[in-house]
Amino acid sequence: MDVLVLIDKLDEIVNNARPMPMTDKVMIEREEIYDILDQMRTTIPEEIKQARWIVKERQEMLAEAKAESDRIVKEANEQAERLVSSEEVVKMAERNAAQIMEDARAREREIRLGAEDYADEVLETLEVNLEKFLAAVRRGRERLQGKTGEEEAAAEE
Q1: Residue 88 falls within a domain, yes or no?
Q2: The predicted structure's pLDDT at residue 77
Q3: Cα–Cα distance between 69 and 104 in angstroms, integer?
Q4: Is residue 81 part of a domain?
Q5: 48 with 120: CB under 8 angstroms?
Q6: Which of 155, 156, 135, 142 minimizes the C-alpha distance to 11?
Q7: Domain count within the chain
Q8: Which of 89, 110, 107 is nearest to 99 (CA)?
Q9: Each residue of 118-157: pLDDT tens digit?
Q10: Which range of residues forms the domain containing residue 11?
Q11: Confidence band, pLDDT 50/70/90 cuts, at residue 12
């Protein structure tokens, strides 16, 4: 299940909780909260795995782009060596090799930037989800601590 859905459920439970008379405190079912927290604990590692997979995919894409670039450069160098027979042919080969190298570098740069942008977007989404999760947990803990403080004060009276 998506962490955002779980956060929404947690928020809904807190918003729909029975209010304590003459206070801003609410009563919630502890087991219901624990159930959602357990689901969050299982969901977050999965999202982290996805982010790691994306980073790995990005690295593989960069490695493939580098390998393709190296292959093209090697191919261009081999072609240039074959055409060394005359000065004009050599000049043409050098121009072709330079163009191939420039194209390969541009392609590698394009693939790398695209992979980095994609990885950054996914990591940004994960960061937002984690921040929402932490905020929901903090709110829940604050409300639970507020309830505990009132129970202790009532017991002392």
Answers
A1: no
A2: 83
A3: 5
A4: no
A5: no
A6: 135
A7: 1
A8: 107
A9: 888 989 999 999 998 899 899 999 998 887 666 666 766 6
A10: 3-60+101-156
A11: very high
Q: Is residue 86 part of a domain?
A: no
CB 6 within 8 Å of CB 39: yes
Share of the chain above pLDDT 90, in %: 26
Question: Beta-carbon neighbour count of residue 29 at 10 Å?
Answer: 11
d(CA 121, CA 142): 31
**Taking each helix axis from N to C terminus, what angle separates 30-82 and 3-15, rounded to the nearest 10 degrees?**
160
Q: Is residue 75 part of a domain?
A: no
Spatial separation of the C-alpha atoms in residues 138 and 75, rounded to whole Å: 59
What pTM, to 2 d.p., does this model score?
0.38
CA 63 to chain centre: 20
What span, in angstroms and rounded, lies between the C-alpha atoms of 72 and 98? 11
Of 125, 119, 132, nearest to 40 by C-alpha is 132
- Determine contact, residues 132/4, Cβ cutoff 8 Å: yes
Residue that the structure tokens 């050599």 belong to: 90
Three-state secondary-structure class, residue 54: helix
